[in-house]
């Protein structure tokens, strides 16, 4: 169920969201969850590209598909949708009026594209000097790649992520592998959220706005974390190890009788407990496997033996045995199992919101847990243009006839 906080962390802010697809909308949704008024500007007639990125789509009360793709629903709750054609002078004028009433502008257009519309940072800060303006692109506003379009998949490859993700080349199925989600887009959205909050804090202290330049490639390189510094410290590029660990054995996935399990043996005592639980205590007494350095050295001999041992019992049987034996382990759940997990249920990670179509929107809740100002899932992701009239009337003072005239010229 939606939360009902008595206080809102960011209820004093208004975000003008000119982004679409994932990185920008993910950032904007964080602000919406924390109470900000997020006005999502969309192209009349079609809106955010992801509205049509299905199936699957939200189903209405009769079980029929609506026009709202699940992809779109994932990143747009709590926002107000306003349709404006920013390629027209009238549409650009509306955006400028909205900027005067906003704290933040988020945009993910190609470098220089908004400048020709007079909607770039240099133009808009003349309207609102303390404006925080965040641009999200593939490669940033500067550098030789600035004009290139950026795609998460490509950046995962360029930024090194796929060089360490995937099975080892020497094994069946070996080779580079992308993440199962658009991880660079999502992390860019998260970094952008932090940067905007920092810029707002600076604004509140000094009255000074600023331009934030977020790039997917920058984020991907930054999130290489210890793998990146391992290279910088050694001048040796890390390799792919699949689900195994280069320095600890056994520390990987194994196939059970009915699925896969993660077994993370961190010391020799845990290894003994593991093989005893599997009825193969003799493996702990084998000199080739008695210590972790020896197990790493004889990995290719040991792992097939352990694979046979593990395959003889079910996933749950192994989890029960190993938890009792003090051996770190865990299941590899599909998403049905994830949302049936008692811990996930207890933490409220599924959120059901009423949709304007009459359907129920099933969404994933925010992981932010705040004692005084928790996330507020106020509304489902909006229909295209659902709030156009309301925003133009209440915020900008437009009349019914003005709105009708703009709509008649396809501005809205």
Automatic annotation (TrEMBL):
Alphabetized UniProt keyword annotations: Transferase
Record bears the keyword Thylakoid: no
Coiled-coil blocks: none
TM regions (residue ranges): none
Alphabetical list of Gene3D superfamilies matching this protein: Crotonobetainyl-coa:carnitine coa-transferase, domain 1, formyl-coa transferase, domain 3
Keyword Transferase attached: yes
InterPro entries: CoA-transferase_III_domain, CoA-Trfase_fam_III, CoA-Trfase_III_dom3_sf, CoA-Trfase_III_dom_1_sf
Protein's UniProt name: CaiB/BaiF CoA-transferase family protein
